[in-house]
Amino acid sequence: MMKIKKGIPLIDQYDKNFMWGGKFGGNFVPETLKKPIDDLNRLFEKLRKNKSFIKERDYYFKNYVGAPTPFIKLQNLTNYLGGAQIWAKVVSENPGTAHKVYNVLVHCLMAKYAGKKSVCTDTGAGMNGKNTAMVGKMLGLKVKIFMGLVDIKRQKKNVDVMKKYGAEVIPVTTGSQTLVDAVSECMRYFVANCDSTHLVVGSAVGPAVWIRICAWSASQISRELLVQIKDEFGKIPRKLKLLNCIGGGSSALGFWNEFIDYDKKQVELIGVEAGGSKKSKKHAAPLTNGSKIGILHGSAQYVIQDKDGQIGETESISAGLDYPGVSAIHCFLKDAKRARYTSATDEEALNAYKLVTKFENISPSLEPCHAFAECIKIAPKLSKDTVLCINSCGSSLKDADIIKSKLGYYTE
Ligand SMILES: *Cc1c(COP(=O)(O)O)cnc(C)c1O
After folding, report:
1. Measured in Å, how far apart are the chain's first and last C-alpha atoms?
2. How does pLDDT run across 145-173, given as a tens digit for each residue?
3. Atom 5 of ligand 1 has which residue's CA nearest to it?
């Protein structure tokens, strides 16, 4: 079994091949990407120790993102389910309305420190694109966003917002014309333009250094949560469970980071993948549906594949979880048995949306509704001194159309 070292950040627990547990991550990239990767590694190692960089990062986290985001008790839902106490960290309460803003902010600041005037990025549902366009505009950077043509059509509202912020949206017409292809295309563009452009990868995926930067940036969430939990309970509760949906997995890594070293009997980490549609049997759950290790976007990971080893088709009601791979660090946490992974179907996520919005004044997007679905399953069976905390990492506003078409209503 793989082993996690205590006292060392997860992002630093890689070997000489930049792999976690000897199996996951790495840099499976063309020769032309090796130097830009080395440069970015050096820049990251320098900046994470640079006091003025950290000060600037924290300035934006506080004054622009609005840190700390709220930590609230869902008392009505708790009463209704009749077991564990249910709490939410409402990360979506920030101008970018999702956790992506942390990674984007750090990358854009890094670009500035490196003297680069433009950034490129990929987007699927458009949340990463929107955040990069927004932060890029604030920091005076030129922003190029690669997006599959299929996604451009179904996420038109987000595309309009990206353009409003002055970003250039480049349609990707290869492959399935969705996020997987957008990431590939964006990486190709970066290889050819890396002297002037900085690459923002939208989750904790890609070659190792992007995984590390993304997880490091998102860990702001758990730094806040640790303080909020200690304020509320006076200490870390004896039975705490942290539930998070898993797409690429950056929001979960950010939500869990400060809690990794606690005993798993005290702090259980639960990741919920997209179980997809019961009808089509397609899903986006490589960790829970027995996927094999493969290489995707420069990194070894559990990845959904067809019988020939080609990247398999995925399906999920939540665009943000609809990715065939998953962060190498989650693969490591799974094999080390530090986190437990499970999945929720489209239907379960929708039912969770119904229940949460019926009882509470928060309106989570369909991604965190996957985590709420697991909470709804387990809470009634747990004791009242168990604390369940869900990362409500997105707002339902972006899902208004799909929720309305499925449930027949949507109210803000
Ligand atoms: C992108 C996105 C996700 C998936 O995030 P990962 O960090 O890649 O797991 C989940 N929820 C929302 C709201 C998103 O925008």
Report:
1. 46
2. 999 999 999 888 899 999 999 999 999 99
3. 247
Q: Which residues contact 71 (CB under 8 A, 6 or more apart)?
A: 87, 88, 89, 90, 224, 225, 228, 229, 232, 389
CA of residue 251 to ligand 1 center, whole Å: 6
- The DSSP H or E segment spanning 127 is helix 127-138
150 lines ligand 1 (CB under 6 A): no
The residue whose two tokens read 């950040």 is: 9
From ligand 1's centre to the CA of 216, what distance in Å?
Answer: 16
pLDDT at 412: 73
Residue nearest atom 7 of ligand 1, based on CA coordinates: 250
Fold of 66-97+218-407: Rossmann fold (3.40.50)
pLDDT digits 0-9 by tens, 63-105 = 999 999 999 999 999 999 999 999 999 999 999 999 999 999 9
In the block, residue with structure tokens 């387990």:
378
CA of residue 367 to ligand 1 center, whole Å: 7
Q: Distance between CA atoms of 317 and 346, rounded to whole angstroms?
A: 5
Is 254 a pocket residue for ligand 1 (Cβ < 6 Å)?
Answer: no
d(C-alpha 219, C-alpha 54), whole Å: 13
Kindly give the distance from the C-alpha atom of residue 248 to the centroid of ligand 1, in angstroms, as a whole number: 7
CB 170 within 8 A of CB 193: no
| Averaged pLDDT score across all residues of the chain | 97
CA angle 181, 137, 202 (to 5 degrees): 30
By residue count, the chain amounts to 412
> Exposed (0-12), middle (13-18) or buried (19+): which is 48, by Cβ within 10 Å?
middle
Longest alpha-carbon distance in the chain: 57
| CB of residue 304 inside a 6 A radius of ligand 1 | no
The answer to pTM > 0.85 is: yes
Whether residue 319 has its Cβ less than 6 Å from ligand 1: no
| Ligand 1 lined by 248 (C-beta under 6 Å) | yes
